[in-house]
Amino acid sequence: MATRKEVKTRIASVKNINKITRAMEMVAAARLRRAEQRIANLRPYAQAIRKMTQRAAAEAGDVPRVPVLQEREEMRQVGILLVTGDRGLAGAFNTNIIREGLRLKREFERDSASVAFSVVGRRGVSAMTFRGEDLLESYTGFTDRPGFANAREIGGALTSAYVDEELDRVELIYNRYVSPLTQYVRRHTLLPLQEAEVFGEGLPEPEPPSDEALAEAHMRAGWL
After folding, report:
1. Global pTM?
2. What confidence tens digit (pLDDT) does each residue in 137-165 have?
3. Helices (H), 60-184
4. CATH for 40-213?
């Protein structure tokens, strides 16, 4: 049986752990709010870029010898870009992307096309390597604060592979953020440009949560 001193020491220890955990919750909540604000600010820009790209592709459709506009008659090799995170403990965030990537691979293989994955994020890289999948490229260490230079590196590598006819098609799979508890796995065609999708085209766009619903989601997740 524990002595009175041991019980007091244990209570003090639990209180200290509670203080540390509470401080971690407050830091996580602040980081989450900043990330949500960045997402909200970037979405109009991303939508405009996609629309501009598709319009440019449509206007240049008759221009000969533009590699990214050339559709391949035979689809032999498909590149799939998976955008996962560098960290775990995120529920099904990474798992759903990996599952959709593997499902899409089987779909292309039924059409006699081979698939090579490019993966963003340590969680996706480790999962796909463990499964013995071919990785064309892997990109890690920046998912907390992704920048334009990272996107340019990834886009440049995939475009070069397409132009050099190492890939006949490029698909993107990522999570569409709605709230801390809700993300939708989305798939977009990146190359050839004629098939690249404008944001949300052909797919029902989920309604953004109200401020009350978002706050409630935060509360259930323990961030407020």
Report:
1. 0.72
2. 999 988 878 888 988 999 999 999 998 88
3. 93-110, 122-130, 148-163
4. 3.40.1380.10
